[in-house]
Amino acid sequence: MELTSVQKEKSIYPKYTWLIVISELCERFTYFGLKSVLILYLTRILQFNGEESTIIYHSFIFLACIMPLPSAILGDSYWGKFKTIMYLSFFYVLGCLVLTGGSIADMFGLDVQKFYHIFLP
């Protein structure tokens, strides 16, 4: 009986596992949510033409697909997997906050919003 009570108390997963799972869930939710409305936002709100919005859209998809490669290099060679996830999650959240702030700022003109969305992640 003691063995089963000890096994129940000790988790088989490290503490950081739940942080990684929640971080990935939020990252996927943000990626697919942003991907689905990005063209509409670029064409209707920021008033980019079709060619510019297509270039920005495909650049976003390309960067989202290529970023795991430098992240893996950082994680495997320098920081380790947990520090890499923590540090890069911070920049991901910061980019989402800048994007959200730029999209809801009524006091800024349309040109300032375009600047924020092109040059800041």
UniProtKB/TrEMBL annotation:
Signal peptide: none
Cross-referenced InterPro entries: MFS_trans_sf
Protein transport found in the keyword field: yes
Entry's transmembrane regions: 16-43, 55-73, 85-105
Gene3D superfamilies reported for this sequence: MFS general substrate transporter like domains
Any single biological process term in GO: peptide transport
Keyword Transmembrane carried by entry: yes
UniProtKB keywords: Membrane, Peptide transport, Protein transport, Transmembrane, Transmembrane helix, Transport
Protein name listed in UniProt: Uncharacterized protein
Organism lineage string: Eukaryota, Metazoa, Ecdysozoa, Arthropoda, Hexapoda
